């Protein structure tokens, strides 16, 4: 008797399987990482980090405004950016380590285990991206500088420079691609191998350089895949948020004092733009008394609402992209 023929996969599953051909991962890997992105531990870690980063940005921005002058405001924004980078690198390390453990059949990282991983590998998580970018920048500068020197060669210089223009473009494009891929997988490399910063950079450079095309194709598929999910989340959220904006506009039009400051949203955006560009526009009327209290409460609630909306849209995509790097990097080993 002829052997039984396996049932053909469903059309959507077959389409996804065909789309992932040529990448480092299969369709099952993509959906498994998507499932990990909805686990409560990872969601709580991510939301906590987002809220902490937003609170630090608000606090440092307020201190910069209170100190007076555009310089202090810019300093506050720079410190906010540094804090955000450190916090997000720590979060990425925790998510990657948890995914690595789950792929081996373990349970997600608890709070104590997450803190232990950060204490053990904080230097690698922070220094590895910096070292990788520094080394790649040096290589690109030396390559571009060498090609530029060809242009100063007497007589033949312009000809040689013209002939090497395509090579210059390839060097710059290759540097951008390798930098993008390396920075994406560095937290996964720390989670999988737990090496020091120098060894991590060497390992990432060796593995990414060996198979850049499959890894790049995997990352492109990952961003396309999660873009569909993020679009669906944003569509669900945008409708009530749009209605809220219409109500806010109506409240502003019916306010007793016709001023944009009655709307916390226009106030916050206007202050941020004015502090950056140094606007010399005349001061607008400030609320006072009970109206000032109500306005302060409204501004705080508006800020919390924005944080909640952005967190709800960004949490799952951020977790998915981070988690996916672990099986992708393991496929490079």
Can you tell me about this structure?
By secondary structure, the protein is an all-alpha fold. The protein contains 11 helices and no strands. It is globular, with a radius of gyration of 25 Å. The relative contact order is 0.13. Mean pLDDT is 76; it is low at 4-13, 254-263 and 272-282.
Key traits:
about 0% strand, about 325 residues, globular
The SSE string, one letter per element, is: HHHHHHHHHHH
Q: Percent helix among the residues?
A: over 70%
What does the radius of gyration come to? 25 Å
Largest sheet: none
**Oligomeric state, counting identical vs distinct chains:** single chain
Low-confidence stretches: 4-13, 254-263, 272-282
Count of discrete alpha- or pi-helical segments spanning 4 or more residues:
11
The chain-level mean pLDDT equals 76
The end-to-end distance, rounded to whole angstroms, is 43 Å
Q: Strand content of the residues, in percent?
A: under 5%
Judged by helices, strands and strand pairing, the structural class is: mainly alpha
**Based on CA inertia axes, which overall geometry fits?**
globular
Strand tally is: 0
């Amino acid at each position: 008797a002829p052997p039984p023929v396996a049932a053909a996969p469903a059309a959507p599953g077959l389409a996804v399987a065909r789309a992932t051909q040529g990448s480092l991962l299969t369709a099952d890997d993509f959906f498994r990482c998507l499932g990990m992105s909805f686990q409560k531990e990872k969601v709580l870690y991510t939301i906590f980090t987002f809220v902490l980063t937003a609170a630090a940005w608000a606090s440092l921005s307020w201190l910069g405004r209170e100190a007076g002058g555009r310089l202090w405001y810019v300093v506050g924004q720079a410190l906010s950016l540094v804090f955000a980078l450190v916090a997000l690198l720590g979060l990425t390390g925790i998510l990657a380590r948890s995914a690595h453990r789950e792929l081996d059949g373990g349970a997600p990282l608890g709070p104590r285990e997450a803190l232990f991983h950060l204490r053990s590998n904080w230097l690698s998580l922070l220094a590895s991206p910096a070292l990788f970018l520094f080394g790649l920048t040096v290589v690109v500068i030396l390559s571009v500088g060498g090609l530029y020197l060809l242009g100063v060669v007497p007589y033949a210089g312009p000809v040689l420079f013209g002939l090497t223009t395509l090579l210059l473009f390839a060097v710059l494009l290759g540097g951008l691609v390798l930098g993008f891929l390396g920075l994406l997988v560095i937290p996964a490399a720390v989670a999988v191998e737990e090496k020091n910063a120098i060894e991590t950079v060497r390992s990432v450079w060796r593995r990414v350089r060996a198979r850049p095309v499959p890894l790049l194709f995997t990352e492109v598929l990952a961003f396309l895949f999660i873009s569909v999910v993020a679009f669906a989340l944003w569509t669900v959220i945008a409708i009530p948020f749009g209605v809220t904006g219409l109500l806010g506009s109506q409240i502003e039009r019916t306010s007793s004092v016709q001023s944009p400051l009655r709307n916390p949203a226009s106030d916050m955006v206007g202050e941020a733009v004015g502090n950056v560009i140094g606007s010399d526009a005349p001061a607008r009327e400030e609320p006072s008394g009970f109206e000032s209290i109500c306005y302060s409460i409204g501004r705080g609630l508006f800020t919390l609402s924005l944080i909640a909306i952005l967190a709800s849209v960004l949490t799952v995509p951020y977790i998915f992209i981070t988690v996916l790097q672990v099986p992708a990097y393991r496929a490079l080993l």
